[in-house]
Amino acid sequence: MTSMSLSRGHVEILQFLRDRTSVIFTFLFPALLLLLFGTIFGDSYDQPGVSASQVYAASMLAYGILTTGFVTMGAGLALDREDGTLKRLRGTPLPIMSYLIGKLLLVLVLAVAEAALLILVGVLVYDMPLPDASHWLTFSWLFVLSVVACTLLGIAVSGIVKHARNAGAILNVPVVVLQFISGVFIHPITQLPSWLITVASFFPIKWMAQGFRYVFLPDGMKSLEAAGSWELGRTALVLGAWCVIGLVLCLTTFRWSERDR
């Protein structure tokens, strides 16, 4: 099954690269948002030695992973279901797990490239310092858990998308809302009402953004988080829980065609 999964992943990557519009939008949009926020807010920030631009550079990594995993996966599966790709694959020896792993490999490659671009912009444009080795270790498990959780949720939510042409509109609504209440677009997150922070704490994006801020920002910045600390243990637990929840939802909601509803 490993070779079939890798082969399917290779096919998914090639198909994605042939669509220049998707390539440009997926890679450049988060970086353009980072440049926009960084230009608007500039160096204004309460913490000495840290600019708002650097905070956004760290937080936007979470946004990039969410849009790549959740939106790209959800829309891609809806399209494959609508145009009959899934139905045709069902009649081949390709196991469902190999198909899904292939999609996961696509998201992983895209997420790595997008994260590299955002970090590059943060370092070159906004002088965001690169972390030490221990922080890169945290970055690794945080990145993997974030990609897996968002991808699985994208697979699960694709089941409610009836038409692929509506996928972007449907999937981007929760994405945009969660950015604002999870401390990605608004920071310090303590500026938000406490009940909104509580709502955001149930979803992965708040913990993803907080974790990436830990990786790239000085330790003193933890005082601006909702709990006044980085809460890395809780971050791992929440993201791990969402990986399990996403897997369960995938296994219970996945269907090969519209007739399987």
TrEMBL record:
Sorted alphabetically, which keywords does the UniProt record give? Answer: Antibiotic resistance, Cell membrane, Membrane, Transmembrane, Transmembrane helix, Transport
Query: What subcellular compartments does it reside in?
Result: Cell membrane; Membrane
Q: Which InterPro entries match?
A: ABC2_TM, ABC2_TM_bact-type, ABC_2_transport, Nod_factor_ABC_transporter
Q: Where is the ABC transmembrane type-2 domain?
A: 21-257
Domain of life per record: Bacteria
- Keyword Flavoprotein (UniProt): no
Q: Name one GO cellular component term.
A: ATP-binding cassette (ABC) transporter complex
| Bilayer topology annotation | Multi-pass membrane protein
Keyword 4Fe-4S found: no
The alphabetized list of GO BP terms reads:
response to antibiotic
* TM regions (residue ranges): 21-41, 61-79, 100-126, 138-157, 169-189, 195-216, 236-256
What Gene Ontology molecular function terms does this protein carry?
A: ABC-type transporter activity
Protein family per UniProt:
Belongs to the ABC-2 integral membrane protein family.
From the Swiss-Prot or TrEMBL record, give the protein name. Answer: Transport permease protein
The species this protein belongs to is: Actinoplanes regularis
